[in-house]
């Protein structure tokens, strides 16, 4: 039982709060936050062409900050508050002391912890969308896009699927940790926004080499390890199910990465480091909706499928389907998040073990949360087919919602300011957009004063420069 609305707790650790659960939830939230800051900041800043390093990293940093402001201002209550309509809650502040110190829904946690935990999921969703838009979106348009999208799209998905009052939640959709709400949403929204923003310049689209692959791997590693909190925190309690979800997450991801590498070797002759990173991401995404409700052997099968099906859609179908060829999706979020997220949602409906779903849904009805495979095994095929139908309905809803809302947002912003940078800005990159460069090297005693932010330095501030050798292969 939570506290009455008009009463604050008598002490810092009320009886209803579990200290262990609260500590793990705060830790999980921070791990997810580290996936974005600095994980995806590093990944984005290093996987793009050198001239876009700052802009790409900044899009992620800005989104993280802007989402938090919207989240505590109105978006959390729209996602998890009192029902306004079957797919949305009342917009309201999440900063009132009496609210923050009361017990959160479905857990032994204070609302303050739940608000923080759910925020980092909302933030990473916007940052994943940014991956489709790197290298050409007007930064001012992005600054408008973030609050509009988290308000009109993310809140609807989160309330419908994760809030106990949501219509898809009541139907029994299985989305353990965001395969629908985060990954399918970001993949579809990113692809849609990329269509409206337009492509990168032809020169950039044809050749867009990473500026630092080792740094890219460091960012990818933070994303992978941070997923321990991503999937391990969603039971909202320290439980055996949380432990299972963590193990399944890493098992599926490893399998997916190895599968992707094997396909690269068989088809192209070389193991691609960037390909391995893509396989890692698809594995993480695909296991997310199923992490704590499938057995380990199923996690391996999901990993094989997440390392092969998105690989096929990216490497082959993308070159054959007209629509996919028309959209410049910089980080291929359509394949790594939309395809992998939808695949994970379907496989959740197939492999969900009713003995595990009862653990996750706190004694939930096994007739509502049973995978089609176990429906065949136990003779409850009707329940299994119903679960698969609900999963497909959830996928259709998320796709339709994100195409619609993202289109409206892009058209609205585009009527005020350009969605795409000017040709001149696209040619120059970071220096034109931010007045800064990621790799600004000091010359022979000369100061780097192209940026308005670096005008404080003078020649006297620099270390002595060695004389340039007259011949030989000295430093450039």
TrEMBL record:
Residues 23-439 form the Ammonium transporter AmtB-like domain. Its main location: membrane. One of its GO terms (cellular component) is plasma membrane. Signal peptide: none annotated. One of its GO terms (molecular function) is ammonium channel activity. The chain crosses the membrane at residues 23-45, 57-76, 115-134, 141-162, 174-197, 209-227, 281-312, 332-352, 389-417. It comes from the Eukaryota. It is found in: Cell membrane. Pfam families: Ammonium_transp (PF00909). Coiled coil: none annotated. It is a multi-pass membrane protein. Keywords: Ammonia transport, Membrane, Transmembrane, Transmembrane helix, Transport. Belongs to the ammonia transporter channel (TC 1.A.11.2) family. PANTHER family: AMMONIUM TRANSPORTER (PTHR43029:SF11), AMMONIUM TRANSPORTER MEP2 (PTHR43029). This is Ammonium transporter.
């Amino acid at each position: 039982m939570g506290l009455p609305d008009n009463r604050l707790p008598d002490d810092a650790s009320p009886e209803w709060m579990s200290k262990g659960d609260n500590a793990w939830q705060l830790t999980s939230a921070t791990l997810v936050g580290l996936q974005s800051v600095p994980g995806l900041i590093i990944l984005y800043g290093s996987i793009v062409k050198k001239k876009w390093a700052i802009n790409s990293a900044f899009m992620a940093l800005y989104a993280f900050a802007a989402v938090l402001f919207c989240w505590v201002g109105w978006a959390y209550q729209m996602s998890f508050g009192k029902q306004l309509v079957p797919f949305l809650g009342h917009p309201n502040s999440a900063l009132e002391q009496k609210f923050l110190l009361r017990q959160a829904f479905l857990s032994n946690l204070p609302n303050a912890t739940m608000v923080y935990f759910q925020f980092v999921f909302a933030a990473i969703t916007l940052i994943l969308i940014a991956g489709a838009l790197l290298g050409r979106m007007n930064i001012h348009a992005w600054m408008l896009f973030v609050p509009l999208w988290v308000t009109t799209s993310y809140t609807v998905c989160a309330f419908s699927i994760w809030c106990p009052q949501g219509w898809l939640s009541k139907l029994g959709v299985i989305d353990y940790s965001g395969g629908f709400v985060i990954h399918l949403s970001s993949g579809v929204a990113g692809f849609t926004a990329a269509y409206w923003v337009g492509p990168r310049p032809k020169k950039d689209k044809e050749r867009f080499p990473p500026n630092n692959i080792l740094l890219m791997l460091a960012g990818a590693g933070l994303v992978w390890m941070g997923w321990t909190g991503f999937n391990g925190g969603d039971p909202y309690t320290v439980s055996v199910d949380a432990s299972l979800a963590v193990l399944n997450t890493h098992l599926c991801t490893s399998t997916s990465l190895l599968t992707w590498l094997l396909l690269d070797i068989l088809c192209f002759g070389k193991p691609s480091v960037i390909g391995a990173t893509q396989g890692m991401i698809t594995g993480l995404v695909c296991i997310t909706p199923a992490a704590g409700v499938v057995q380990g052997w199923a996690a391996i099968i999901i990993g094989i499928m997440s390392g092969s099906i998105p690989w096929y859609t990216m490497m082959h179908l993308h070159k054959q389907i007209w629509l996919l060829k028309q959209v410049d999706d910089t980080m291929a979020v359509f394949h790594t998040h939309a395809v992998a997220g939808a695949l994970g949602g379907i496989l959740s409906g197939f492999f969900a073990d009713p003995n595990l779903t009862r653990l996750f849904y706190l004694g939930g009805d096994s007739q509502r949360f049973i995978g089609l495979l176990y429906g065949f095994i136990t003779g409850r095929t009707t329940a299994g087919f119903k679960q698969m139908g609900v999963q497909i309905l959830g996928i259709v809803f998320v796709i339709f919602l994100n195409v619609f809302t993202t289109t409206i947002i892009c058209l609205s912003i585009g009527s005020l300011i350009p969605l795409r940078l000017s040709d001149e800005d696209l040619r120059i990159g970071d220096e034109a957009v931010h007045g800064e460069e990621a790799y600004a090297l000091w010359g022979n005693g000369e100061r780097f004063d192209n940026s308005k932010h670096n005008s404080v330095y003078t020649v006297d501030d620099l270390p002595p420069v060695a004389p340039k050798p007259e011949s030989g292969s000295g430093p450039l």
